[in-house]
Specification:
The chain has 142 residues and is mainly α. 79% of the residues lie in helices and 0% in strands.
């Protein structure tokens, strides 16, 4: 369990550092923690969308979703609360960020490539799930 927690914080650390780096280049160094949190929320939401899409394709059910449906807002609240309590509450991310900043350059470079690969996997997984949904003739399942 500790490995998963530390991996999550490392994932956040690499996103935070990349946003911090690009923000310095463009002059937008404010609210870096909020930008990184937003990226984490987006990646988690895209992962949930992928799972929902795969479930829809597997069960061949056609539904029209909106934000007022519990199947949408309950996971959204859970993901938002999870991010708040793991990242923002008591600023626990700062302790981990300072620990990860002391890692060797080689270890951080390898970790950066792993995080980049996971991000690509999440994005490509979402695209592929939408592709699978587009291949189904939904008119016969309504």
């Amino acid at each position: 369990m500790k490995f998963i927690k530390k991996s999550y914080y490392y994932f956040f650390y690499k996103i935070y550092r990349s946003i911090e780096y690009t923000s310095k280049l463009t002059g937008g160094e404010f609210l870096t923690i909020n930008k990184a949190s937003l990226v984490m929320l987006a990646l988690e939401a895209w992962g949930l969308f992928s799972l929902a899409n795969y479930y829809t394709v597997y069960k061949k059910i056609s539904t029209e979703l909106n934000i007022s449906m519990p199947i949408i807002y309950i996971p959204a609240v859970i993901v938002f609360a999870f991010n708040y309590f793991t990242i923002h509450y008591k600023d626990s991310w700062k302790q981990y960020n300072s620990e990860f900043a002391n890692y060797s350059k080689k270890k951080n470079r390898i970790g950066g490539w792993i995080v980049f690969g996971i991000i690509l996997l999440i994005i490509s997984n979402l695209i592929f799930s939408f592709y699978l949904m587009s291949q189904i003739d939904w008119s016969q399942y309504r």
